[in-house]
Amino acid sequence: MSDDEERITKCPYCGLELRHPYWAHVQQDHPEEYKKKQTWINLYKDYRSMGMDKSICFTVIGELFNVDPNEVEFFLKKNKEL
Questions:
Q1: Distances in whole angstroms, Cα of residue 15 to Cα of each of 8, 23, 26, 79
Q2: Mean pLDDT of the region 56-77
Q3: Fewer Cβ atoms within 10 A, N terminus or C terminus of the chain?
Q4: Helix (H) / strand (E) containing 8
């Protein structure tokens, strides 16, 4: 088993312990929260902790939310996450 399969994260909305990727749980069980840009911060931190390059994070999050990766980067900078 890889480290990623063993990692447990608490859902930031309900506290349920989840295996990665937790965003699938958030999307299904907390759709209103998932739609908020604040979710981008959690996803970004999660992806970076798994070793994903910043530019790839912007692209992946952009594709998940159907926005330009530059918008993701701007939001993360504005919220002092970069």
A1: 11, 13, 11, 23
A2: 95
A3: N
A4: strand 8-10
